[in-house]
Design a protein that fits this description.
Length: 406
Amino acid sequence: MSSSFYHLLLSQSTTKLAYSLYTMTIITFLYQETGSATLASAVTIISMVSQLMSSSTVPLMMEKFPLRRILLLSQISQLTMYVLIVVSLLMIPSPLNYFLLLIFLSLISFFNGWSNPSRSALIPEIVLKEKLVSANSILSTTDQTLLLFGWSIGGILIAYFGHGKVILITIALLILSIISLFLLKTNATTIKKKRKSRIETLKEGWIIVFKHPTLRTITKMDIIELFGGGIWIGAVTLVYVQEALGQDEKWWGYINSTYYAGSIIGGILVWRFSKTINKSLIGYIVIGSIGVSILTIIYSFVSTPLVALILVVLMGPLYQVRDIAQSTFIQNTIDKETLGKYLASKATINQAVFSLSVFIIGMLVDLISARFVYLFSGFLLLCSGIYAYQKLFKKQQIEVKHNQNL
């Protein structure tokens, strides 16, 4: 890997950790100050809506600025908001500062929404094609590790240092991220682009999403899977632990931690076998989807807590195989000029569908049971895997045979 890849890794790692610490800080501060669970939960809702709005603006940013500069703008804008949060906490009285915190939260989430599509689109510029699986697995594993670390240590840091000092830690992390981005060098060449209207720019990614024959299949797969994606949010896993496993909140924590641990193990395994996976990306997308679906269906019938933990750990590698193989396949399929716009449009769809999924899954848990939603999600994953096999894998095999006969 090039030094630029490691600068990107450091930058995104510190940003992810800062974002998780800051989110925990705002949630706990609002809850401790007001005692309102509704106000505290508004943090998650505002973040999701802001990132959804942000994704729709990414193509316009990519038309004007290089990817590295978009990441820098994202980090510097977030840093400014963090500084304003500290000022708000120290100098502005309640309840006015609650209102300001939610405004700053929405802006931070908006600017953070530029990061993921830009990062994914930047990877092919700084990593050789044959190293993409390895690079994606390293980034994914690091993301999962920092999510686990951030949510595990965040509460301890808040209890020990207080809300204001934890925000100062996030500011230090973002400064480190910005320095790392300044050191990053890309292989991108400056191309004189034909001036496009805003409508044309916004449509470009959506046209690829819905009209590119292969990527249209990927989009449909994501939509099918994400309609059951809400099964791993905290509220649903808590109900499952209590209803299906007959355990208390302690096992809820075990399930959540094990989920991240399985993803970390999966990322390491994908990195270790990256060359093998790179030879058949579509095959591993299918294996991952069908494998996760089978384990999720089994998980829906389990009553023994230890068996549930084992199944969650086993899901981790399969989730990672599917996601990393899919990311690499997309990066290999689209040219670098339009990759970011496609990823931004795809992220908008994914966030919208996932938000709807959270609502549907929550309703099904209340109306039927937690077991049913895992069975329902497993069935959707199975449909997605079979669809990928029919539309992608079989088509690829036909093309391979045709080329061999030429």
